[in-house]
Design brief:
The chain is of the alpha/beta class. It has 10 helices and 6 strands, in the order E-H-E-H-E-H-E-H-H-H-H-H-E-H-E-H. It has a 6-stranded parallel sheet with strand order 2-1-3-4-5-6, with helices on both faces. This is Alpha/beta hydrolase.
């Protein structure tokens, strides 16, 4: 069994490796069986491109191609996707791009709407990066309604949004923040209902008080998928507590206990 780990918007491959790498180590999964690609315009990827290049299906095609090259086209796979990575993982499963047997969706943020309210801060950040650059753009963003709405509910969520301004090459890659949130992870919930019929087991992980990754959305994904839903502590209760709970839940599920 090979593992494909997919990061969130504005992050890079180290995010899922840091989060679930210890779980895989504990299960005895060798490093050669783990692939964690950097999505276009993230991490070590030097490729940016045009708006159409940031369609979820285009990103899913690219990620799946990397995974097939790294682990083989016919090798059974487990996907673990965080936020944007969850949406890309879902598209890979729905389109049969890899022979997936299991998938873990961590804090899903995308649904059947283009640019839902909880993702509207990202295009604002992207445009401010283009207009003002990282430092001045961040100062302007602190005064916007999208930032203030998130920060009031979750200071950790507000800090997460501000971190987009300090990510590597943020201004040149701003297009990712403008275009990716316009994508839909699925067209209708009936699409998710078909995943189990394909023999793909799934787990959804969500957290309360996370305005960018609403717990209600995790509930919606789990209900439509017919999958278990794990509720982990809020980031504002301490990231270490959330990470520990997530690792425990994912490790138990992957081991079948």
């Amino acid at each position: 069994m090979r593992f494909v780990l997919l990061h969130g918007l504005g992050a890079d491959r180290t995010q899922p490796l840091d989060l679930v790498g210890p779980v895989l180590d504990g299960l005895g999964v060798p490093a050669s069986d783990v692939v964690a690609p950097d999505v276009r315009a993230h991490g070590a990827s030097a490729v940016v491109g045009e708006p159409a290049d940031f369609a979820l299906d285009r990103l899913a095609d690219e990620v799946a191609a990397v995974a097939r090259h790294a682990v083989g086209a016919d090798e059974p796979a487990t996907i673990v996707g965080i936020s944007m990575g969850a949406a890309i993982g879902l598209r890979i499963c729905l389109r049969g791009l890899l022979p997936v047997e299991r998938v873990v969706f961590v804090r899903p943020a995308f649904d059947d709407r283009s640019l839902p309210e909880h993702l509207r801060a990202f295009p604002v950040i992207g445009e401010l990066l283009r207009e003002s650059g990282p430092r001045d753009g961040a100062e302007r963003f602190r005064r916007t309604e999208p930032y203030l709405r998130v920060a009031r509910e979750s200071p950790a969520g507000g800090r997460g949004l501000l971190s987009q301004f300090t990510s590597t090459d943020a201004a040149r890659r701003a297009i990712r923040l403008v275009e990716i949130p316009r994508n839909r992870a699925f067209g209708a919930e009936s699409e998710l209902d078909g995943l189990a019929g394909r023999g793909i087991r799934s787990l959804v992980v969500g957290a309360p008080r996370d305005p960018v990754h609403p717990f209600a959305l995790a509930e919606r994904w789990a209900g439509a998928l017919g999958s278990p839903l794990v509720r982990v502590p809020a980031r504002d209760d301490g990231p270490a507590a959330q990470t520990a709970a997530l690792r425990d839940a994912v490790g138990r599920w992957l081991s079948g206990s």
